[in-house]
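Lecture notes, continued. The same structure-token format from the folding unit now serves as the input rather than the output. Read the line below as a description of shape only.
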């Protein structure tokens, strides 16, 4: 589709032709010339822009979940955001990875193939330093990780995988399975060097250290769910249509669900000392006036106003009216 010119650009173009600054015949020749665009068969584009946008949304959610997880585990400032998403040959990805780094090799059942989560040494060692009680300073010693340090890193990333599963749950229910933990990318021979992969780069800051976490997703692993990554799939109304039998079954399941019901007869505040000195026969004054309706909670929401009483020698309440919006108070 050609670009649309503004009125000022059209006027400038007509003016240039009328003054002789631009030759109309030369413009026609340029228009008639065949335009050739170079195509690199080694960098086959297997993913559409729509699918790339969907992957971006999924991993933006993953970055937020990962930020919360690492902040809680490391007890320091953590910020993770999606920096870029590229599709490139697997060989090119391997060349871009540092010679010594932290690599998690994973299976993605029920999808086929494997994926890689590579953590830059600056970030990996800052995490390890925090786990061992340090300030989170980065130090490149990945090539000499001790057995204890290796096990700590494995355990940290094992728990982080649940956030990846949660981020992908809107597309596919996956269950990650860890295959290996490597520090040398040259040992990775999971797919053909020319196979197209998606590389999601997460810009990561931990304390004063910063680096990248790269997620490598081969096309062969995403192929079974690639249609689900298109906007057309999500906008398809048939996906949300339910048959009458399904609606009836859903209604029955909801109606038979159990909920907790509580009646609040009043509340009071006392000191810890008064609570410790309570004895049999002591009276606690409530903030509820006699004769005023009491609140009935469904779950934790104020739902009804009721009048207390008895029925068949049992304590009971009679519903008077619902509380609109669940925020009505007795004043």
């Amino acid at each position: 589709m050609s670009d649309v010119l503004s009125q000022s650009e059209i006027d400038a173009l007509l003016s240039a032709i009328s003054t002789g600054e631009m030759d109309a015949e030369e413009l026609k020749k340029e228009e008639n010339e065949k335009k050739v665009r170079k195509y690199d068969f080694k960098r086959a584009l297997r993913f559409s822009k729509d699918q790339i946008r969907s992957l971006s949304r999924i991993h933006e959610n993953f970055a937020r979940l990962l930020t919360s997880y690492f902040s809680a585990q490391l007890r320091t400032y953590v910020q993770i955001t999606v920096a870029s998403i590229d599709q490139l040959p697997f060989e090119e990805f391997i060349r871009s990875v540092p010679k010594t780094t932290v690599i998690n090799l994973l299976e993605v059942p029920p999808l086929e193939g494997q994926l890689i989560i590579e953590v830059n040494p600056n970030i990996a060692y800052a995490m390890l330093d925090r786990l061992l009680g340090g300030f989170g300073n980065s130090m490149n010693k990945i090539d000499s990780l001790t057995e204890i340090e290796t096990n700590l890193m494995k355990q940290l990333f094992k728990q982080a995988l649940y956030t990846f599963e949660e981020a992908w749950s809107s597309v596919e229910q996956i269950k990650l399975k860890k295959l290996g933990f490597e520090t040398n990318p040259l040992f990775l021979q999971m797919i053909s060097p020319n196979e197209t992969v998606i590389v999601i780069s997460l810009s990561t800051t931990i304390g004063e250290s910063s680096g990248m976490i790269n997620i490598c997703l081969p096309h062969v692993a995403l192929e079974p769910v690639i249609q689900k990554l298109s906007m057309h799939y999500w906008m398809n109304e048939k996906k949300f249509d339910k048959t009458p039998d399904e609606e009836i079954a859903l209604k029955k399941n909801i109606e038979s669900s159990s909920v907790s019901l509580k009646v609040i007869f009043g509340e009071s505040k006392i000191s810890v000392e008064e609570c410790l000195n309570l004895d049999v026969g002591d009276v606690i004054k409530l903030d509820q006036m006699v004769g005023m309706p009491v609140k009935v909670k469904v779950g934790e929401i104020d739902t009804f106003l009721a009048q207390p009483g008895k029925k068949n020698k049992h304590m009971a309440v009679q519903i008077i009216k619902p509380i609109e919006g669940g925020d009505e108070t007795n004043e």
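Point for the exam: The chain has a mean pLDDT of 80.
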